[in-house]
Amino acid sequence: YMENQQIPRTDNQDYLGVTIDTKLSWKQHINNLQNKARKTLGLLKRTLYAAPPEVRKTVYEALIRPTLEYATYAWSPHTKTGIETIEHVQRSAARFVTGDYRSTSSVTSKHFNSVFFSFMICNLYVRMLDWIESTTLCS
């Protein structure tokens, strides 16, 4: 109660840009991130389709990556589905940056083996592994 009025109970709450639910599963937060990043990526695809890869890379680093990485030390995905959800957005962003939308190309193909791409895909994964190790060691 607050000032004689009952405070409504919710299943999840946004706090400083992170969605926290009653089970601390982070599923809703990851879904919110995926939706926000995909909307931004869709807008970028429509407006920057003719831009050179360097410009698309810069825009990705400025608008999409910070969305995905914000507060990862607090919510870092540790479930397979959480990791796959974030990686799916990263793969879509990589295709946008490189301009390679062929169904036969792959994230792991030689075409994508640039220093930038390796960093882009691996950065979030390494952060997730670091978080998993630190929580395992502390337990």
TL;DR?
The chain has 139 residues and is mostly helical. The chain has helices at 27-47, 53-69, 72-75, 80-98, 115-138; strands at residues 12-15, 18-21. Strands 1-2 form a two-stranded antiparallel sheet.
Overview of this structure, please?
This protein has 139 residues and is mainly alpha-helical. 61% of the residues lie in helices and 6% in strands. The chain is built from five helices and two strands. Strands 1-2 form a two-stranded antiparallel sheet. α1 (27-47) packs antiparallel against α2 and α4 (80-98) packs antiparallel against α5 (115-138). The chain is elongated, with a radius of gyration of 18 Å. Residues 110-116 have low confidence and may be disordered.
N- to C-terminal distance: 35 Å
Poorly predicted residue ranges: 110-116
The helix-and-strand class reads mainly alpha
**Order of strands in the sheet with most strands:** 1-2
Radius of gyration (Å): 18 Å
Largest sheet: 2 strands, antiparallel
Helix content: 55-70%
The H/E string reads EEHHHHH
Residues in β-strands, percent: 5-15%
Number of strands: 2
Give the overall form: elongated
Number of helices: 5
> Overall pLDDT, averaged?
80
